[in-house]
Amino acid sequence: MKLVQEQRTKINGQPIIAFTLANDHGMEVTCLNYGCIITSILVPDKNGKYENVVLAFDDFSSYLTNRPYLGAVIGRVAGRIKNSCFELNGKTYRLYANENGNHLHGGKKGFHHIIWQAAGFSKKEEVGVCFSHRSVDGEEGYPGNVDVQVTYTLNNENELIISYQAISDEDTPFTLTNHTYFNLSGNVKKDILQHELKMKSDRFLPLDHEFIPTGEIKDVTGTPFDLRQGKKLREVIESTDPQIRLVGQGYDHPFILNTHHDEEIVLFDRESGRTLVVETDEVGVVVYTGNQIPHGEKMNGLQSRKYLGICLETQALPDAVHHPHFPSCILQAGQLYSSTTKYTFRVSY
After folding, report:
1. 181 labelled ligand-binding
2. What chemistry does it catalyse, as a reaction equation (predicted)?
3. For the chain, how many structural domains are there in total?
């Protein structure tokens, strides 16, 4: 196991450090203390060739805006909150509105533009980095001081484990996710249209015209959202279903998972042989097929475009603060928030 730290640049005199985690089999994960951003995951294909399977900007300066939230930890609340407000304990809180009057992915700065405190660690069978941050009362409009810890751990089973923990001194909405875009072709040789996605989910959440859940919970049967037997993403993207068309021909939808830590999400690229298995204790996952990736950015040596990557954002259900029948996303004062998502990389020959 190996851990390498390298300063990439500085922001207002603060060093931006890249941590590269390497296991004994050659898998590597590189991440930054800026936004806990994952910039590279090197894993083998069926011929043993190691390539990067995530999207990353060519130039660090692009992360200072990071319109597609590439590789970052998202918080305090992942997803959208309608009208940028919510009521809690008899009080109305107004959040920073950063998308059509709504609150998206934690607001203007969120957790994705934070320089986190970071400490690497190395053990016999695992290596990792622990990031920490205090989100102060009133930040982006949220109540309470929240102490947050995010840990990335790589082991010799080719598993990347992301563990989130937090504690607040006031009740507050809280749910984190990671916004990495995966492309298993390796070094973005192709887009994701030939990837196959399989998921243990019987239900999804339809969206309104602002991409916010309507409150309905719908059975996937007979819809393009039925991934229980697996689907090629091209089939989904070419669908004429109104929900697929609504978000720019693809997914940007929350799914409710049937099971947890049970190979519930599987992404497969037949040509490279790479498989990604995602397991989590979160209630759901937002699947985003990169329909709104902005053009004109430099990513992985290419001009950015739609469908270059897919996000599998494990989290509480978006806009849960406005839907009492959704599982609550309120972190109670003094209660420990704890969530784990595991990403396992395999090869099929």
Report:
1. yes
2. alpha-D-glucose = beta-D-glucose
3. 1
Whole-Å CA distances, 188 to 111, 132, 168: 27, 31, 40
- Backbone torsions φ then ψ of 130, nearest 5 degrees: -110, 120
Contact present, 144 and 21 (Cβ < 8 Å) = no
Burial of 193 (0-12, 13-18, 19+ CB in 10 A): middle
Nearest to 196 by CA among 171, 225, 227: 227
Its domain, for residue 273, covers 2-347
Residue 152 among known ligand-binding residues: no
Q: The domain spanning residue 329 has which CATH number?
A: 2.70.98.10
- Parallel, antiparallel or unpaired: strands 126-135 and 146-155: antiparallel
For the stretch 114-128, pLDDT in tens is: 999 999 999 989 999
Predicted confidence (pLDDT) per residue in 278-325, tens digit: 999 999 999 999 999 999 899 999 999 999 999 999 999 999 999 999
Catalytic residue set:
179, 313
**Which backbone phi and psi does 245 adopt, to 5 degrees?**
-70, -35
CB atoms closer than 10 angstroms to residue 34? 26
